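Record type: monomer structure entry
Structure origin: computed from sequence
Chain ID: A
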Amino acid sequence: MSVPSPLLKSYLSEDALCRWRELIEASRRIVIFGHVSPDGDAMGATLAMYHYLSRLGKRVHVIVPNVFPDFLAWLPGSDAVMVYDHMMEASIRTIKRSDLMICMDFNAVSRLERMADDVANHRAPIIIIDHHLHPDARVDLLVSDPGASSTCEMVFCLLYQLDGMEAFDFDMASCIYCGMMTDTGSFTYNSNRPEVFYIISLLLSCGIDKDLIYRRVYHNFSESRLRLEGYILYEKLDYDALHHTALFTLTRDEMARFDFKKGDTEGIVNLPLQIKGTRLSISLREDPDQGLIRVSLRSVDDFPCNQMAKDFFNGGGHLNASGGSLDMTMDEAVRQVRRAIEAYSDLLSE
């Protein structure tokens, strides 16, 4: 047990700490899950926990519902991640053999989409570690903090509470820093608390190169992706000056034109916020595999992306970064965005 730091949260009460140790010690085969369309925080958190539990001698597997972006393939341990959509039978066998399941960076098993039933029907204990609102408390152990910058921040604090800095090595620190960086837009939102940068200082003491991690994530795109970004900003951006809101759409045909790969739209929804006075940016993208429109929302200051996502886009998330999905055509989705903007007109027009 480490000496507590006044800047780091202790997520586990004495009872919860006993429960954590009980669950971990009783388990030989552990499966860790990330959410559908895993991002940097989901991958960083699952892989950091993968490394930690593997060092304890556990047989650990990480399973994600679908493919993660290429720019996260450098993360230590990513080559061992099982993708449910590509390895369905093996994933189901692995789930059925597990005696503990850990859900990271999502608040309910339903967010696993096609994989959800396999997890829900398995009788092994479930732990949730997450920073989203309204977590499902019907699990064996819930570690929740909507005020955290990322699930990776929570993982750091949790493991520090368990074992201090001895818990961390270079690989784990790399994964955790990547998740914290990507879930805060390179520390441009939801990262004003001193403990965020205290954690970064401790991660740097593990020998990570934060500048290299940034380049691996944000300077690792293809030429086609860079041209896609230019196309979106020049041809597709629709700016509503009255409501200080930007919107762009992206169809399957347009994605095919630019040789779209998973993760190629990562971060583009943030760019319109560079327009002076902009409060909200929304992207609508046709899902290449499902008949859905994927919605991403980003905002500044106190505009509640998460509430708009809940009210209009079957989603949720954080105050300044949220998402959702719509089962409709692109034209219908654009009309839904217009309704959402009108409903929030007072906040957007301030």
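Annotation 1: The first helix runs from residue 14 to 25.
Annotation 2: Residues 223-348 form a domain with the Diaminopimelate Epimerase; Chain A, domain 1 fold (CATH 3.10.310.30).
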